[in-house]
Specification:
Chain lengths: ~300, ~325
């Protein structure tokens, strides 16, 4: 079966003007690969500034005018050209945005969920939002309500692919769990879900597979089950993320993710990596390994076994 | 209901204080003026041929010897009794002069106001929608050009082109020369108002256009427009459904705030076009030491400007649900 969405060698860069007239190209995403099947929740996990949101905007074809995108995106067996993306977005491919700031502040919730009143009623009802919600303005929604309204905007279109961009910030663990549960339900009904988040722990509660993002690259793609044991993880960064979780020792590693304008040659994680060798400054391919993918010359999983 | 009354009461009190302050300031400026009303209005030569009694009588008429405080309080007492006094220059009640001039000026100012508002909104929208491309650059360049052009100079330029060279439009006044008031048609009035209204509208136009463009650019870069695009809305739909509503608030402030600018501009423009309006009346009254008339003009114009800002305040509540909610919350608190 062909995957619902496949992203190959995707690169997104920005043209910026530095100090007046000097033009420079900022690579925000480089050589990204990802596939999502129907009925699957694929989580993309990475820290702030790793280019996660841009991936969503790139798939939808709504990048800003100074952005440049390369690579191929295939949706439902055919290339997702800008024209096709424009026709499909909001219908088959929908976005669940981060916050209530993505709703028009001067428009009532009802018309923003959808045009068809009965459909709007049905979808709001499904998420436990009463008829009075339709008459509220976005600023009158509580955090949890806002999140459910945002999901409603997506589900009202009965989509085939849902892209959720950080759908849980600002919610306590229980509320966040409930919201993620709604995405699991959608996937179980056959929808593909791309979940973009910085919260590995929450993502693992519903994801079928996890792609780990670092400085604009996918460094590892692994089935969610691999995150049960440290030994099953492939990339040193993924292991570092895992060990930074509270239940796994809460151990941070030194250093920060490099800024897109100041990337090192070769592997971007090399300066923070304990296994770094001189070869890491060269080309590091993304390759399959034990049922997942990894972009590392010295993957941990291979060495351990 | 109580909060609405409270709101209205507060505004009314503020307006009364404002009018008092403005009239006092105008009066003090007039008292400090070095112009001698007798010399200005009667003339040096005529004054020389008059007897002391005649001069004393004139001084009495122009109120030269009365103490300023007494004059102001006298005027204020009359006003409280509903009498704005008699114009010293025209020898008719101030209300009559004001009514006539206001009628002329309101035409002019309303036309200029609507024109600059509508055109500014339109040009600003076009510029924002074509941001960075040639229509945007053209509109912005033109706005910078007209906003750096003094209104009186533009008035003279328009007069030269359309009245002197082309001869299409009258050179001045608000009605044809020598025509009786009853014979003046609406078409005559319109023809005489075209150039002054055009000049006047230009003052506010650049402001409105550039502010609209800026606000709309902000709106178009906002998260909710990004989301609207992600949901497949077309640019036209985005402009219509999200753009207009969200830029309405600053546009309303600007448009109703511009009443004061248009009024200020009308003083200059009416002078250049010899248009018999309120602005010109203010100049005449000021230079001719016609105290009752000047104070009348000042009070009326201050009330107009205040009214404009008040309407803007009220419209906010209509446009912005956040303000509406706050007013409701305030009402509940006040009622409890």
């Amino acid at each position: 079966m062909t995957p619902l969405l496949s992203v190959e060698h995707l690169s997104i860069s920005f043209t910026q003007y530095d100090r007046g007239t000097r033009r420079r190209i900022l690579p925000a995403i480089r050589d990204l690969d990802l596939t999502i099947d129907r009925g699957q929740v694929a989580a993309v996990v990475g820290s702030s500034g790793s280019g996660k949101s841009l991936l969503a905007h790139g798939i939808l074809g709504i990048l800003p005018y100074n952005a440049h995108m390369e690579g191929t995106i295939t949706y439902d067996g055919a290339p997702l050209t800008p024209k096709r993306a424009a026709a499909l977005r909001g219908r088959e491919i929908v976005l669940v945005p981060q916050s209530v700031g993505y709703l028009d502040p001067l428009m009532k919730v009802g018309p923003q969920v959808g045009r068809d009143k009965t459909a709007v009623r049905a979808v709001l009802d499904r998420y436990g939002l009463g008829p009075e919600t339709e008459g509220l303005y976005p600023f009158q929604l509580s955090g949890g309500m806002a999140r459910r309204v945002l999901i409603s905007t997506a589900v009202a279109a009965s989509p085939a692919l849902v892209i959720a961009d950080e759908p849980t910030p600002g919610l306590d663990a229980r509320a966040a769990g409930r919201i993620l549960g709604h995405f699991r339900e959608l996937a179980d009904a056959g929808t593909g879900v791309l979940l973009i988040t910085h919260d590995l722990e929450l993502a693992l509660t519903i994801a079928d597979k996890v792609a780990v993002f670092y400085a604009g690259e996918t460094v590892e793609e692994a089935p969610a089950g691999d995150f049960d044991r440290l030994e099953d993880l492939r990339h040193p960064y993924t292991r570092a993320l895992w060990q930074a979780l509270p239940q796994h020792g809460f151990r941070p590693i030194p250093g920060t993710q490099p800024y897109p304008g100041a990337l090192p040659e070769g592997c971007p994680f090399a300066p923070r990596c304990p296994k770094c060798t001189s070869e890491c400054g060269g080309d590091v391919p993304y390759r399959p390994l034990d049922g997942g993918f990894v972009r590392c010359l010295h993957p941990e999983r291979g060495n351990a076994s | 209901m109580a909060h609405r009354l409270g709101f209205a009461g507060k505004k009314l009190l503020r307006m009364v204080l404002l009018l008092l302050g403005v009239s006092l300031a105008a009066f003090l400026l007039m008292s400090a003026s070095p112009l001698d009303p007798l010399q200005t209005n009667v003339g040096q030569a005529a004054l020389g041929t008059m007897s002391q009694e005649q001069i004393a009588q004139l001084e009495d008429y122009w109120g030269v010897n009365d103490p300023p405080l007494e004059r102001y309080l006298g005027w204020l007492t009359d006003v409280l009794h509903g009498d704005l006094g008699t114009s010293l220059l025209y020898r008719v009640p101030v209300t009559q002069v004001l009514a006539e001039r206001l009628k002329n000026s309101l035409w002019l100012m309303a036309a200029a106001w609507v024109l600059s508002g509508a055109l500014g909104l339109l040009l600003g929208t076009v510029a924002a929608a074509c941001r960075g491309r040639w229509p945007d650059r053209l509109i912005r360049g033109w706005c910078l050009l007209i906003s750096s052009t003094p209104a009186f100079w533009l008035a003279i330029l328009l007069l030269m082109v359309f009245s002197v060279w082309l001869g299409w439009l009258p050179i001045g006044l608000s009605a044809p020369i020598g025509a009786q008031a009853s014979a003046v048609t609406l078409a005559d009035r319109l023809r005489h108002a075209i150039l002054p209204a055009l000049t006047l509208s230009v003052t506010g136009l650049a402001n409105m256009t550039l502010h609209t463009r800026e606000k709309l650019c902000d709106v178009l870069e906002s998260d909710y427009v990004l989301f609207a695009r992600a949901r497949g809305e077309s640019t036209r739909s985005i402009l219509w459904h999200h753009g207009l509503r969200n830029m309405a608030l600053p546009a309303i402030t600007l448009q109703f705030g511009s009443i004061s600018e248009i009024f200020g501009g009308s003083v200059l423009v009416e002078q250049v076009f010899s248009y018999q309006g309120l602005g010109q009346c203010a100049v005449t009254a000021g230079l001719g030491s016609d105290l009752p008339l000047l104070l009348g003009v000042t009070v009326v114009s201050a009330a107009l400007v205040f009214g404009g800002n008040l309407i803007a305040d009220l419209l906010y509540g209509v446009v912005d649900p956040k303000i509406r909610a706050r007013v409701r919350a305030y009402g509940r608190k006040g009622g409890a």
